[in-house]
Specification:
CATH architecture: 3-Layer(aba) Sandwich
Number of helices: 10
Helix content: 40-55%
Structural class: alpha/beta
CATH class: Alpha Beta
Distance between the termini: 30 Å
CATH topology: Rossmann fold
CATH superfamily: Vaccinia Virus protein VP39
Strand order of the largest sheet: 3-2-1-4-5-7-6
Strand content: 15-25%
Length: about 260
C-alpha cells in the first residue's frame, strides 16, 4: 500500500483532480480561525507549558541554537515552545490560513507552506524534527518518514507526539458520542478523511515505531508518560474530553538518524 502506488491509490479515492491531500489541507484551513480556542491545541502558560517543556527536554536535550523543523506547525504553538527552549525554529504547514496565524503570533520564526510528506527542504538541513498530532493523519507515512530522514543531519533527532484516536474501547466510543463543539458537517468531513488515511484503524505506537525503524531511524524510545500534560490540560478540557483523554492511546516517540558511517 505504501510508496508511490499506495499514495496514488489513496489520492484517487477523491474524485477528479481533487486529491485526499487537498481535502486534508482544506479541512484544517477551515478550522484555522478557531483552532486555538479548541482545548488541547493552544498550550497554556504555566503548568501545561512546563509539562511540554519537560517532555521535549527529556527526549531532545537543550536547544542551543540547533535548527528545528516543526512539521504541521498549525498556529505555531509547538514552534513557540521550541523557540523558548533555544532552538532556531522553522515551521512548515500545508494550510496557508494556519500559517498566517502562526506568522502573526511569531514574527521571528520562518514558516513555510509545504506538504509534510514532501517538504522541499535540502538534504541534511535540520538538526531536529518535531511533530504533534500529525502522524495519524498521514496519507503515506513510509514516504513521510523517509523524507524526514533525508532532511535530518547525521545524528539528528526526531520527536513525534501522537496517538490512536480511533480504536478506543466502549468508554471512548461513548464519550466521543457525548462530545460537543464540532458541527455535523465538520464531523462528517473528519470521518471521510480519516477513513482514507494510512492509519484509518488507529496509529498505534508500536506500528509507528516499526515504520520509523524501516526508514532508517535508530535508538527508538516510546514514551507514554504524558500524564503531566493531560493533568495540566484538564481545566480547559472539561470532564467529557478529560475522560476521553484517559482512554486514548497517546505517546511520544523519539529516534535518531544514524551518525555518518554508522
Amino acid at each position: 500500500m505504501d510508496g508511490i502506488d499506495g499514495k496514488n491509490s489513496r489520492d484517487a479515492l477523491v474524485s477528479g483532480n481533487h486529491t485526499l491531500r487537498d481535502e486534508i489541507r482544506e479541512y484544517w484551513s477551515d478550522r484555522a480561525a478557531t483552532f486555538d480556542q479548541d482545548p488541547g491545541h493552544r498550550i497554556a502558560e504555566g503548568p501545561e507549558t512546563e509539562a511540554w517543556r519537560a517532555l521535549f527536554c527529556r527526549h531532545l536535550g537543550a536547544g542551543e541554537g540547533r535548527r528545528l523543523l516543526d512539521l504541521a506547525s498549525g498556529t505555531g504553538e509547538i514552534a513557540r515552545l521550541c523557540q523558548g527552549l533555544g532552538y532556531a525554529v522553522t515551521g512548515l504547514d500545508w494550510s496557508e490560513p494556519m500559517l498566517a496565524r502562526a506568522r502573526a503570533k511569531l514574527p521571528g520564526v520562518t514558516f513555510l507552506q509545504a506538504d509534510a510528506e514532501c517538504t522541499m527542504l535540502r538534504d541534511a538541513s535540520m538538526d531536529v524534527i518535531v511533530t504533534r498530532h500529525l502522524v495519524w493523519t498521514l496519507v503515506d507515512p513510509a514516504a513521510a518518514f523517509a523524507e524526514w530522514h533525508r532532511v535530518l543531519v547525521p545524528g539528528g533527532q526526531i520527536l513525534l507526539v501522537d496517538g490512536d484516536f480511533v480504536s478506543g474501547g466502549w468508554l471512548a466510543r461513548m464519550v466521543s458520542c457525548l462530545r460537543g463543539g464540532s458541527s455535523v458537517r465538520d464531523m462528517s468531513r473528519h470521518r471521510k478523511i480519516l477513513s482514507q488515511v494510512h492509519f484509518a484503524q488507529g496509529a498505534r505506537a508500536e506500528a509507528v515505531a516499526g515504520m520509523l525503524r524501516q526508514a532508517g531511524f535508530v535508538d527508538l524510545r516510546i514514551d507514554r508518560r504524558l500524564g503531566a500534560i493531560h493533568r495540566a490540560q484538564m481545566p480547559q478540557l472539561g470532564w467529557r474530553k478529560s475522560l476521553l483523554r484517559r482512554t486514548e492511546h497517546r505517546y511520544a516517540i523519539s529516534a535518531r538518524k544514524p551518525d555518518r558511517g554508522a
